[in-house]
TrEMBL record:
GO terms for molecular function: DNA binding; DNA-binding transcription factor activity. Residues 4-72 form the HTH gntR-type domain. PROSITE patterns: HTH_GNTR. This is Transcriptional regulator LldR. CDD domains: WHTH_GntR. Pfam families: FCD, GntR. InterPro entries: GntR_C, TF_FadR/GntR_C, Tscrpt_reg_HTH_GntR, WH-like_DNA-bd_sf, WH_DNA-bd_sf. It comes from the Bacteria. It comes from Comamonas kerstersii. The keyword Plastid does not apply.
Length: 256
């Protein structure tokens, strides 16, 4: 089993904190004591994580002042996903390629997470799920999409496979963008139970991991992504049908 060192895992969580709080270059992070308590780690592990991120140009520690997000530092995912992001902007159909990539990755991360998740991992997955529910109930689509993506990333980190975590981490913003897009497409002209169905699928996935059932976890993520694919295909077909009807109506009017 390939296990992430604690400092690597803390570094991943720090990166997520920067993303979640949308901290801009020059922004100061909370104190070491506050961060260590919030993340449930020792200050030694936290300092090692900060040092790792400082060596990558993401953070900067200033003696007596604290830790800051570096100005002009490239975000950790940009180089890996920039070409894919431009493809998605130019042709939204690439979201199906993203779904296939997620299927390939997340069947593995869910399976390993069910076997390897620690109590801290399980708590974090639960928090992400609860955040997603809270934002959905508030009809906050942007933060619901972010919490959705964070939920899947938390599961990847619970796999304790350094390569899988890095691959999912690199895809995080790309996944976030497609999750938000997918949610919009599925809900605009979708049946009322779509959101409930997605919530049930997320809960089943979470419960399988908490219960330590790898086969159930793998089946749950497979069912979830297959359902998303099905709903998107239907949404695309409905949109194409409406466009054909509009073109027909315009043509008919021109002959009337």
């Amino acid at each position: 089993m390939s296990t992430l060192r604690l400092s690597d895992r803390v570094a991943c969580q720090l990166l997520e904190l920067v993303q979640e709080r949308q901290l801009q270059p020059g922004a100061r992070l909370p104190t070491e004591r506050a961060l260590a308590e919030q993340m449930g780690v020792s200050r030694t592990a936290l300092r090692e994580a900060i040092q790792r991120l400082s060596s990558r140009g993401v953070l900067e520690s200033r003696v007596g002042a604290g830790t800051f997000v570096c100005a002009h530092a490239p975000l950790w995912h940009e180089q890996a996903v920039a070409p894919l992001a431009s493809l998605l902007r130019d042709d939204p159909q690439y979201r199906y390629d993203v779904l296939e990539a997620r299927q390939a990755l997340e069947l593995s991360t869910a399976w390993y997470a069910a076997q390897r998740a620690t109590d801290q991992d399980r708590d974090r997955i639960r928090r992400c799920f609860d955040d997603m529910l809270r934002h959905q109930q508030a009809q906050d689509a942007v933060n619901a999409a972010r919490a959705d993506a964070q939920f899947h990333l938390a599961i990847a980190e619970a796999s304790h496979n350094a390569v899988l975590v890095q691959m999912m981490g690199s895809l995080f913003e790309l996944v976030l963008g497609t999750v938000a897009q997918n949610r919009r497409l599925m809900f605009v002209h979708s049946e009322p139970g779509t959101l409930d169905r997605l919530t049930q699928q997320h809960h089943a996935l979470m419960q399988a991991i908490i219960d330590g059932e790898p086969e159930q976890a793998r089946a749950a993520i497979s069912d979830h992504l297959s359902y998303v694919h099905q709903r998107l295909t239907q949404a695309d077909a409905d949109a194409a049908r409406r466009q054909r009807l509009q073109r027909f109506s315009s043509t008919a009017e021109s002959f009337s």
